Amino acid sequence: MEYLEKVAKLKEILTSMESVVIAFSGGVDSSLVLATAIEVLGRENVLSVVADSELIMKSEYLDAVKNSEKIGAQTKGIFLDELSVKEIQTNQPSSWFYSKRLLYQELTNLKNTLGFNWVVDGMIMDDAFDYRPGLKARDAFGVRSPLQEAEFYKPDVRRASKGYDLPTWNKPATCHVLSRFEYNERLTSERVERVKKSEIYLQELGFKIVRVRDHRTVARIEIEKEKFPEFLAQAKTIEEKLLSFGYTFVSLDVRGYTYGKMNKLLEKK
Fold first, then answer.
1. Would you name the residues annotated as active-site residues?
2. Domains and CATH numbers, the chain
3. Residue 213 backbone dihedrals phi, psi, to 5 degrees
4. Other Cβ atoms within 10 Å of 5 Cβ, number
5. C-beta separation of 73 from 50 below 8 A
């Protein structure tokens, strides 16, 4: 399907829904769904819901609320108590399913209470090629993914987002804090908090794309390879800071930042 056909298909899909509750993360994908939905359905028929949780960076939640309001949407924030769910707390390979199930349950309740027709998310075609147990939760609740239905890949999303002049059109991908831990590792508020504090600190130093992978006593830092010299020039200061957060060892992953790296560990088992 050609690009313009995909755009037309997306609008056709959303128009047929009549009213939607959108799982809004503030990223490039859900921002495009939100902007397009408002265009074809009108603001009154679109509700943007932004989820907060201990496992979501506070800055990402606040940015998502801000972006939703800037796009012009009715916006509602909700809190998900994810660490109270056993399968999430113990970070089972199925934890993504339970995380999404918790989200979709809340959104479905809102849809039913407020009288909207559909819950939609921002999943795209690319999402079909990684480990995505969240797809099972989506299907269980009848949540729809308009971008996927219209066969949008990431380049299509960025092109369309630029056309809408969305500030997120070139925004780097973000990911749930669950991705910082190995599977089958028990999560505690303390471990989660030190990961978040470490990433905030590194971002403030200028490492905008960063993941701190928590291996109990070890903080394994992933940044873009071109930022290695900048990191190494400050290595001692960075090490001391992360040690103060509770780590025993601090390491730099020589492979650099790679999306979905923790899933590679799952594939080897």
1. 175
2. 3-163 (3.40.50.620), 177-267 (3.30.70.2210)
3. -85, 125
4. 11
5. no
Closest CA to 205 of 167, 170, 233, 243: 233
Which residues face 139 on adjacent strands? none
Q: Letter for the amino acid at 84?
A: S
Q: What is the pLDDT of residue 145?
A: 97
Instruction: Select from 100, 118, 132 the least CA-distant residue to 33.
Output: 118
Percent of the chain with pLDDT over 70: 94
Task: Quote the mean pLDDT of the chain.
Answer: 94
Q: What is the 3-state secondary structure (H, E, C) of 119-188?
A: EECCCCHHHHHCCCCHHHHHHHCCCECHHHHCCCCHHHHHHHHHHCCCCCCCCCCCCCHHHHECCCCCCC
- DSSP one-letter string for 47-84: EEEEEE-TTS-HHHHHHHHHHHHHHT-EEEEEE--GGG
User: Alpha-carbon distance 130 to 154, whole Å?
Assistant: 14
Tens digits of residue pLDDT in 157-166: 999 999 999 9
Please state the φ and ψ torsions of residue 214, each to the nearest 5 degrees.
-95, 110
Nearest to 246 by CA among 183, 197, 174, 187: 197
When pLDDT is cut at 50, 70 and 90, the band that residue 135 belongs to is confident
Structure tokens at 128: 């079909």
Greatest Cα-to-Cα distance within the chain, rounded to the nearest angstrom: 57
Count of Cβ atoms closer than 10 Å to residue 176 Cβ: 19
